[in-house]
Amino acid sequence: MKQLMTLFISGALILGSAGLVTAQSQTAQQSDNDSIKKPAKDAGHDTKRAAKATGKKVKKTTKKVVHKGAEGARKGAEKVEDKTETTK
Fold it and tell me: Which of 54, 52, 31, 50 is nearest to 42 (CA)?
C-alpha cells in the first residue's frame, strides 16, 4: 500500500511538472510571436505615415504645376488675342 501511494504521488508530481513545463513553453512561444508582431506593426505604421506624407506632397506639387500651366496658357492666349484683334 505504501509503494502504491509513493507511486501515485510520484506520478502526480511528474504529471504536474510536465503540465507546468508545457504552460511555460506556450507562454514563451506566445512571447516570441508578440516580439515578432510588434516590429512588423511598427513598420506597417511607419509605411502608412510615409505614404500619406508622400501623397500630400504629390498633391501639392501637382496643384502648383497645374496652376502654373494655366497661368502660362492665359498669358499665351492674351498674346494671341492681342495679335489677332480685328478692327471694325
Answer: 50
What's the predicted TM-score (pTM) here? 0.45
Rounded Cα gap, residues 1 and 87, in angstroms: 130
Q: How many residues are recorded in the chain? A: 88
Give DSSP secondary structure letters for 65-84. Answer: HHHHHHHHHHHHHHHHHHHT
Burial letters 47-65, b for 16+ CB under 10 A, else e? eeeeeeeeeeeeeeeeeee
Cell numbers found for residue 20: 507546468
Residue-wise pLDDT for 42-62, tens only, equals 999 999 999 999 999 999 999
